[in-house]
From TrEMBL:
Ligand binding (substrate): 17, 78, 88-89, 159, 191, 209-210, 219-220
Protein name per its UniProtKB record: Diaminopimelate epimerase
Gene: dapF
GO molecular function, one term: diaminopimelate epimerase activity
EC number: 5.1.1.7
Amino-acid biosynthesis listed as a keyword: yes
Length: 280
């Protein structure tokens, strides 16, 4: 009979961008890159696009200095083990977990990330809205997929994006390999979005995420996509409903910030096998 349990986990997703959540208030877990890769592996682990460690900012040595110590910090890792500054779908799932676990009360809640503090609110209809900060366009560049060149804008949503608006049929794009990006403009890599306007309010998007591959959704990517689509339409501010393979989110861009609204779902919970965890 088993006498001890491994670390607790929760599995969740936001528009099918899926995560393993690891509660670790005091920062005691040894979360190595290899353990992240093992957790995210869809054959030998739980399977996920990324890991969200739930830790108090004060317990994480590399938390940014401007995040107060008592704030819950989303220590985000991509499936390949790399660290990213921000995750728009992850932060909604993170807050759903905090409220579900009784670690926070519903209402506006500050979440620490490597891109700074992000206010998050669970709405009465269950959707979750995140204040994502300013989506900053910092250049223009190109990529190529399936023999076609795409022009896009570089957008900083806390993490780097190349968002390419075109009339290409998105289902035809082969995103099984990483679309190239300019290393001078993106020295730390880039998430690449392909965006097709459907009408004045709606766009369709597919994404290849840095550190993961093609995912069924990327929250920061949808904000970059909305900023790029607005710019292509000659506007700096406005609203876009973004249709991704995993669902639909809504992005509003004002002169001072961007908000992202979408679902956040908890799917399962349990404990890792201690032998598996030790060996991972
Ligand atoms: N899926 C996320 C973005 C996760 C980080 C990204 N892959 C990066 O490396 O910047 C989202 O929902 O925003």
């Amino acid at each position: 009979m088993r006498t001890s349990q491994g670390p607790e986990f929760i599995k969740g997703h936001g528009t099918q961008n899926d995560f393993v959540i690891l509660p670790d208030a005091d920062g005691e877990l040894e979360l190595t890159d290899e353990r992240v890769r093992a957790l995210c592996d869809r054959q030998r682990g739980l399977g996920a696009d990324g890991v969200l460690r739930v830790v108090r900012a004060g317990a994480l040595p590399d938390a940014p200095a401007d995040v107060p110590a008592d704030v819950w910090f989303m220590d985000y890792r991509n499936a390949d083990g790399s660290i990213a500054e921000m995750c728009g779908n992850g932060v909604r799932v993170f807050v759903r977990y905090l409220v579900d676990a009784g670690l926070a009360t519903a209402g506006e809640l500050p979440v620490g990330t490597r891109a700074g503090v992000r206010p998050v609110r669970i709405r009465d209809d269950g959707q979750v809205t995140v204040d994502m900060g300013v989506a900053k366009i910092f250049g223009e560049s190109t990529t190529s997929v399936s023999g076609r060149t795409f022009h896009g804008v570089a957008v900083d949503v806390g993490n780097p994006h190349l968002a390419c608006v075109s009339d290409a049929e998105l289902a035809d794009l082969d995103l099984t390999t990483r679309p190239p990006h300019d290393p001078d403009l993106f020295p730390n890599g880039a998430n690449v979005e392909f965006v097709r306007p459907l009408d004045d309010d709606h766009v369709q998007m597919r994404v290849y995420e840095r550190g993961v591959g093609e995912t069924r959704s990327c929250g920061t990517g949808t904000v970059a996509a909305a900023a790029a689509a607005l710019r292509a339409a000659g506007a700096d501010t406005g609203r876009r409903v973004v249709h991704i393979p995993g669902g639909t989110v809504e992005v509003e861009i004002t002169s001072s910030t961007a908000t992202l609204t979408g679902p956040a779902v908890l799917v399962a919970r349990g404990h890792l096998d201690p032998t598996w965890w030790r060996a991972a």
